[in-house]
Write a structure and sequence with these properties.
543 residues; Rossmann fold; Arc Repressor Mutant, subunit A; 24 helices; binds glutamic acid
Length: 543
Amino acid sequence: MDYTALAALLFPDVTDTPADVEARYPARDLPEGAVVTRIGPSPTGFVHLGNLYNAVIGERLAHQSGGIIFLRIEDTDDKRRVEGAVETLINAMSYFGVRFDEGATADGDNGAYGPYRQSERKAIYHVFAKQLVEMGKAYPCFLTAEEIDAIREQQTANKENPGIYGKYAEKSRSLTIDQIRSNMEAGLPWVLRYRGDSTGQYICVDDAIRGKLEMPENDMDFVLLKSDGIPTYHFAHAVDDHLMRTTHVIRGEEWISSLPMHVELFRIFGWQQPVYCHTATLMKLDEGNKRKLSKRKDPELALAYYQQEGICREAVWEFLLTILNSNYEEWRLANPEAPYTEFPYALDKMSHSGALVDLDKMRDIAKNVISRMTAQQVYDGWRAWCGEYDPEFAALIDKYPERTLAALNVGRGGAKPRRDLETWKQACDFMRFWYDETFTVTDEMGVDDETRKAFFRKYLASYDHGGTSDDWFAGVKAITEELGFAVKPKDYKKNPEQYKGSIVHTTNMLRIALTGRANAPDIWEISHVLGEEITRERLSRWI
Ligand code: GLU
């Protein structure tokens, strides 16, 4: 067979040579050891937590080595294309603070190694597809869907591996150039297949996360180009990651089984194989059993879930780093204030047996993250979230900006800051009491009417808004005692029959009157943020 003639027949429009294309993608000018990586999500409309998970690894590896991370849109699957999905993806990545150095952006491409959308790279793939045909390593295959089904049935019956290889590839491999030409003239659809000639060897790939992976060499005549000329993942991966000079391919473990095809492509082209990093599947504990997160059952698989719940981006990152590197938590304890960028992220500390997504843990991390923020940072993050998800609350914040900031400052700073705020959504509930518009009483005072009225009467009569907090507390103690409550809770515990209760009960009355609930920050500070008028008004309701 004259492969040059076959290549010309199959790709009449390709005029560029591989060398022409290579010249447009020179080696990158980066420091020694710099990692170049990417995420290559498919825009299906559904953005996965896994997309962010891989992006976090890539971002850390790239930026900690002086390298770069780029965003490549893998939109070769027409059937799965969804309107607006690319924008959704780009927005989600930017919302969660992934800093791409180049790649697809909302306003087109940014960078010299594009186009960064595979749908715009068809001409490039065809140059290399043509080269494979010229080398005798690829051929057109006209098998129909029915023929392929029949082959699969036969393979199942014979307990053989599925796919087109060996004797199953014979029919297509043995077509003459004249037969190919006449098939094409008759308009028969064809795909381009790789000619897999395994010698029965094993390949060994040193996965940066999993260590040595040994697998049989590729023996499949796998598809390179589909009948519409669009490449398969396998072919696009090899061509793109070579040209874009990716040093590390970070992707889900579901790709491990296709590694022999990828290794084969890099070998046949004589390209430097990237370092493969196959990440663990995201799992959850379901009634004590670990199982894969499912798109259908688990809302937390969608990145949008964290956005809607208002789990701040720092907490999501922090959580991902915790499940990604086994020593992250230890480092965080030792360095509570340090930015996560100072953590020395290492691939060999990654688990490969399934990463557990534990929402309780994430929320707990979120509490710590918010408790370490300044009031202004909390204000900004929360306000931005409300702007999108709770416009009524956003309006309230805008109506009382100073009070809001002062309220967020209560219990903040110091060695043990309060951990009341968990998510931006929960903050809207927790912060209700700071505004008359949303204030409601939810907890019970647990004190009889008589005593309660007497307490508030005395309290208001002696309340000195301008006094010191020590004087104020002395006053509370005096009223507590006068009304027959124990000033020391342990006295009440010892002799409950001698008292009506303890100072815990009297201060609770104040807390509930001011905030509507028993769990609230410091009463004195709250009164001062609310101001004397609101304080007196809320307390007098109980008389
Ligand atoms: N488009 C592939 C996916 O979404 C990308 C895998 C890769 O990063 O190579 O799984």
